[in-house]
Fold these 4 entries.
Entry 1:
Amino acid sequence: MSSDGFLLPLRLFVGFRQLIDGVHAELAREGHPELRPLHGFVFQAIGRDGTTAVDLGKRLGVSKQAAGKTLDGLERLGYVERSTDPHDARRKLVRLTDRGVEVLTRSAQIFDELRAEWAARIGADRLDELERDLVTVTGAEAFRLDVPGWFGG
Amino acid sequence: MSSDGFLLPLRLFVGFRQLIDGVHAELAREGHPELRPLHGFVFQAIGRDGTTAVDLGKRLGVSKQAAGKTLDGLERLGYVERSTDPHDARRKLVRLTDRGVEVLTRSAQIFDELRAEWAARIGADRLDELERDLVTVTGAEAFRLDVPGWFGG
DNA sequence: TAAGATGGTCAACGTGGTTGTCCAAAACGT
DNA sequence: ACGTTTTGGACAACCACGTTGACCATCTTA
């Protein structure tokens, strides 16, 4: 029956990867070749309001240390900046720089474009259905950022 | 306008991850707690006929060294064994052990079961459609094993 | 005020991937 | 046949990311 059970996860992943690669190929073309798939999710988790390393770790399902390290990299690349919280000397607020916000904005646009391409290929209604079915099946589950460690380590 | 473009990749990934986690949770219960998501794909790439490190690397889209390292780990865990090729003293044939074949077999069964659960939830026809649409959109693309490096590194 | 919780950083370690280098064995070409 | 590639494997160095454990400064709370 139906099809081989191996196919489903494979196809889901290939779809995921193509979208992510599509966005990063375009971002690279627009002057952000250093960004990795990982970073896009970090940007989104930081959001326009900013966060702290601990909070970021919680949102992404990794340790505060791991979140801190990723932030270090992003800071070095100029996408993020840290400042001390005037109300709490322990906290360091993390904010996207203008460059960071730009990436966030462009990513959203490019994802929308890619989605539109998919819609053009299989039909907008089918794509909506696909997405809806996926939500039905997977439920409300948060995205975990520990992909490298999860998959391999 | 339909939905947020961010949702699509997220949902695809969550679906992928749930299936993979489902399989590995069950495998862990059945005596294979050391296996990582990565390994499942390696098992499948090795197949019942076996391969070599170089060939495995090609199939999975990683360097022969990376493939070799992964094989080292699997060998240490007793899922794989190497033997010299009688016709070519350079080659080392890699084969699944009985334990390895067992995992491969069970994985396929569990994937089928999980797929059946999905079918029960959204309908078998919808799931078939979903899979078909995914194939239409993503085309015939091979799975790359370099997920850790791809995502994060 | 003393005790506890919280935010951040450093260090050590493990896994995975990459490139570069080397060697032995097979394949090839003249 | 013999010298020259090519090929399979292994080793080393290096980078990215994840984890846990420890430590300190600061805020909270009893």
Entry 2:
Amino acid sequence: MEGSSPIYLQITDYLKRLIASGELADGDMLPSRRELSAYLGVNPNTVQKAYRLLEEEGLISSRLGAKSYISLTDERAEEIGRRILEGEIRAAVTSLKRTGLTLDEAVSMVERYWD
Amino acid sequence: MEGSSPIYLQITDYLKRLIASGELADGDMLPSRRELSAYLGVNPNTVQKAYRLLEEEGLISSRLGAKSYISLTDERAEEIGRRILEGEIRAAVTSLKRTGLTLDEAVSMVERYWD
DNA sequence: CCAACTGTATTACCCGTATAATACACCCGT
DNA sequence: ACGGGTGTATTATACGGGTAATACAGTTGG
């Protein structure tokens, strides 16, 4: 979980990636707040904040006392995947252009650093 | 000055880019703290923090009462350029790999989004 | 049934970032 | 020389992110 953006956003993004790739599908159980926070070594409140956001976005469903689970349609999952991919690409391209390199130079740099 | 990292770091990075590209060279005067802060619409203390960092890195020189100016060797400027470029590329590649795309797919996506 | 686990909520605290308002010592051009 | 601009410093305030400790209501499985 490397990165400097807020932890709770890293968690939501990570789960969205799993949803986008199909590793997490509708009906799948999620680790409890306490469980995941212990595993990640962060505060339960931080995980709760992430789960709350995901619930507000309609991606997961929670009931008091019971475990939370993924709750979305296939179309929604696919749309999430497209959105994440596009955002990632756009950000990478913006960053690459800012270096002042040409497209060809940038591409060959990316190829050189890929492994 | 778009981005979500601390403003004072955005300022140092921006000035380092100008140094790396040669638009700012040894001896060049910098805008005063108050001037730049007014132009950017941020607090003078924030600019001061950025300038202080740059001075600690030995990139600029300040004297009480007088304007600050760029102070570095050509080798240092070139080294900064290399370091920035490498960091940018590495970050972009990391981000691209995380999407799960293959190298070829990533490259064609970058080409498609370049303009 | 009931103990263990779950989601939820609240309160307090810390740290980094950023703003705001001053104040002071210093340089420089007119 | 002197006034305006400069670097520098200090204090206070605010906010978001994160931690910590605790409490309560609800579900669930043995």
Entry 3:
Amino acid sequence: MTTTDWLEELRGERPDLGRASTAGRVADVLRTRITEGHLRPGTRLSEEDIGAALGVSRNTLREAFRLLGHERLLVHEFNRGVFVRRLTVDDVRDLYQVRRILECGAVRRLAERLASAAAPSPTADLLAPVGAAVEEGESAAAQGAWVAVGTANMNFHQAVADLAQSPRVTEAMDHLLAELRLVFHVMDAPQAFHATYLPENRAILELLEAGDLAAAESAIATYLDAAEAQLVEAYAAAAARG
Amino acid sequence: MTTTDWLEELRGERPDLGRASTAGRVADVLRTRITEGHLRPGTRLSEEDIGAALGVSRNTLREAFRLLGHERLLVHEFNRGVFVRRLTVDDVRDLYQVRRILECGAVRRLAERLASAAAPSPTADLLAPVGAAVEEGESAAAQGAWVAVGTANMNFHQAVADLAQSPRVTEAMDHLLAELRLVFHVMDAPQAFHATYLPENRAILELLEAGDLAAAESAIATYLDAAEAQLVEAYAAAAARG
DNA sequence: GCGTGAAGGATTGTTCAACAATCCGTCAAT
DNA sequence: ATTGACGGATTGTTGAACAATCCTTCACGC
């Protein structure tokens, strides 16, 4: 192992060091509680109450709110406070519109990169995260761990977007999926929703492994269309009830 | 005009009402100075100095910094302060990677929407902003207003991305172009750079108007490849000098 | 000369307290 | 039922204070 390897490894741990910010840690705590559904959409987050509960000052808490606001998990209404975001049906449609562009675009860019390199199919290490997510989902389903099935499904699509090998696409997809979690917790049975699409994930993986990226892209598109339709219907019904 | 029309119009003015925040206005001021090149990349923004100059407290200024940090115009280094972002060559490549996905994706989504509606070509009002940006650029070039040529070019690509009719894509493209402005100000002659591509913009517009969206998408892709190559070369040279 | 380490100043991180501005619910009046 | 005024509660913003950290300088020893 050379010196530059050492340094390169250390670079990877730099983000952990920067985590010392109090506001960042507060944001982490709130983010988890939101994405895991303990804080329902529409809930108002009182500066005083939460500040007292977490033992941080209002100013620091405000910085945490800003962080989550830009991730679209919170909305900030002037002179009224911050609320856990409540997504409209139009928001859900838009999220899937962006997913179509991002996920299909990632596969398409990968295809063009392979074409210019005269490679027949993606290398195994590129697809490793995708395959891992597929198996993670299947084994979770076998054990009946439905929550884990949901996160595995998210990991799968995150891995697909990561095929673009673009830090900005990765981050955008990360935020996008966090937003989508807001929707899932309003539904009745998000478990069944995710389990439905496990076979499709494997089919997409196999198309990617076979190097038929055009078919994979098209499979993702139809997957997203179906998921959007099902989700919009279920969400509209849930929203109508309250 | 019915009552609901009135109300719908008013909804569009809601964002203007929320603009009363001091931190938001401070962020606006700083954003302009950064994107217009008055604050060079790498510059450190002292909390005390800027707070005194703008007449706001450190806490408020911090909120403004946080806002711009999430737009990637500023970088925040713990215990060291905030700096105007200095983009690496890899950042430039990534920005163009995302542009390819977003702009081409927007056209592609538009094509699929037209196909499902059995429409031969996009409606005129959809392409109006694109056409306006093209003419804006050409008339600015005729008058030698090179700065205006640059903004017109940005408007063109923003308009292309807006074809996706997705609020999130619009916002992402907005932030992306703001980031790119950081690069242009480091170059020697950004004017000539933008002027080169005026004819291409018109060609893309005509392909869109003709309804040949596949050709338009491919034209955008080659445009972006060329622009990226030229920009990366110029930027690397400028970065090497200092 | 050169790398090491300590002292000092400057800047940021965080908290606290205070006041102004704004919103929300209540209640009375028309 | 709508309007208008009042009062409590919450947020917006400020200023000051202290701890933690970084950067510079300078002296020291090899």
Entry 4:
Amino acid sequence: MTERRVRVRFAPSPTGALHIGGVRTALYNYLFAKKNGGDFLLRIEDTDQGRFVPGAEEYIIESLKWLGIIADEGIGFGDGPYAPYRQSERKPIYREYVMRLIDEGNAYYAFDTPEELDAMRERLKASNVDAKYDAITRSTMKNSITLAEDEVKRLLDSGAHYVIRLKLPRKEEVKLFDEIRGWVSVNTSQMDDKVLFKSDGMPTYHLANVVDDYLMKITHVIRGEEWLPSAPLHVLLYRYLGWEDVMPKFAHLPLLLKPEGNGKLSKRDGDRLGFPVFPIQWQDPTTNEISSGYREAGYLPEAVVNLLAFLGWNPGTSQEIFSMQQLVDAFTIDRVSKHGAKFDQNKAKWFNQQYVRHTSDNILAVELKKDVEKNGLTFSDAYIEKATSLIKEKISFVKELWSMGNYFFINPSQYDEAVITKRWNEKSPAVLNSLIENLSSLSEFTSANIEEQYNLALTKNEVAGKDFLQLLRVCLSGVAGGPPIFEMCELFGKENTILRLQNALNTIKK
RNA sequence: GGCCCGUUCGUCUAUCGGUUAGGACAAAUGGUUUUCAUCCAUUAAAGAGGAGUUCGACUCUCCUACGGGCUACCA
């Protein structure tokens, strides 16, 4: 077999918001494709009409685009040579292949009603046997194996509801090589005759995914670990369809787990634990319930990509900050870990902090400006950018430029109680008055000059600097921490600095 | 219950038979920053348990325990 061009796909189903674990799967597929000079495609697996959620598809596309996980082909990315990329639009294709399975005796019609299936399962459970539709139970059910040929024909002609099931051998070891876990083997005696074709004329995931991966020339299937148990089934499908020689390689990714330990990370965990589990905000169209997203929470896309990449993969070096291109260059499947990873909010925050710090002031200032304007305030771009540069070092999230630095734009009316209680004393008003006086006569309002005047005010009132500086900060900004004080003052300007000091003097009384 | 997968500091992980088991986040302590939310330094912190194989096992095998996944006409 000649070397095939690497082609991988991300194939979510549009049943709601794309979970962060799904995003990681998409990312690993993307990294693998780019690393190997291949193609990454987005395919929408909407074979379950009943679970379709409006807006989910758009949400998936928008999320991937926000993160820079750009597909070469597929829905939302200009389609491509293997269109359509939405399984519901490929409906006629699947019938052809499932008929081939029937003709060759590898699949059969089953006419059992849901009630009959339930009854069978309960019967088996009661006798302590595994309740599955398999080589043994199928002989007791209503299908084209047990029914006479003309009866099957009559049922089909009369439009009776039926599904098509894969006919598994009674006892056969099915082996597959997983690129992450090595050889995995399952006996068909443990599997059941999975439905391939539903009564609504749609294929199930199992059939559709195999047929599409074949037709779209997929070389590697990189997906979540939840698919590992059904992978042997897919192997069998490739075999029966005669495609084993071009069967993709499999890599089953470990799952993302809840931070407290039990179970995989799920939709509800995010807002319960105070961090997003979705890339961007999602509003459920039926309940209107809003789930927070990384984007809205102030995460930078590059940070999300970086932190996600490290949840289940590492380069084997001590480097942790990676651009997308660096990830592409470094990524290999064999460095993906086998075990699930718990999401660590602290580490996520740290990653974002790194990226915020490395983002230039003028770009961050644009975001801060939005908040300033949202609050009905007007400041020059230069002022906003300078404020950005001062606040930037202290924050982890872009939105904290405003939440932690809004005192650059609004004079404080409240003052940190703890600091006031601790630092304010009978000498404080005198120091402030001296400072106001000194600053008023200052012609060049620079941080160095301000500091000089501050020290003079201290000396005059016989107060130690260490005891007063934090109090000064609180008088100016209202809060206990922040950037260098005198640089702050320089930005506030002479008039506003003095106004702030006077306000503090008038407001804080003890 | 059955089947499959997994198990190194609190968390993410390095180690591909021989290491004082390394790094990062978080934590604690100290320092710098005349304030702090930055920064620097230091400390504490791990091979689930039991059998093998081997001169030697975190690393290979088996058992047990624990965790996770799957077990639909859902993906």
